Amino acid sequence: MVLDRHKRFAAKDDFLEWYDALTEWSEDIDYNDYRHATPNLQSWFLAMKTIVPPLNGEFAPSDDNFGNGKFQEADYCIAKEAIYVAFAWSDAGEVHAIVSDLAKKNDLAFFDISANQVIYPDGFVLDLDDKEKKPSFLKRLKSFLRI
To answer: Are 128 and 116 contacting, i.e. CB atoms less than 8 angstroms apart?
Structure first.
């Protein structure tokens, strides 16, 4: 997911509250139409759709051209402040870097669901992981050696 927010989420709970509300998909919009999204999201989508075409909407390939690109088509859900996109697992590794790079170029935050982090274009990372941080290898080694 890429998101365009005028303010940064300072805390995990703030982001999760916003995310839960967003993913109700209750806005009175066509979630296949990019035109209601912010200008930065529109730019990201227009660049992204040429690399990974959408399954639905005006830019979806015809039946004859479906599956003929480098990547499989993706499911884009376009809200006013965010674009949620689901890629084929086989494309995820390569596409992940493209999504992240285009997000940064378009001054958007990137919610990396697999890493459970929101990464802002200036490098700030909001970690959403609830797990306790494991001690570093060096700390574990020192503890083991009682140094």
So the answer is: yes
Q: What is the pLDDT of residues 14-45, one digit of tens each?
A: 999 999 999 999 999 999 999 999 999 999 99
Q: Structurally, how many domains does the chain consist of?
A: 1
pLDDT number for residue 140: 54
- Range(s) of the domain holding residue 53: 2-145
The residues pairing with 74 across neighbouring beta strands, listed in sequence order, are: 54
Neighbours of 18 (CB within 10 A): 15
In what order do the strands lie in the sheet containing 109-112?
Answer: 75-78, 82-86, 2-3, 109-112, 117-119, 125-127
Q: What is the CA radius of gyration of the chain?
A: 18
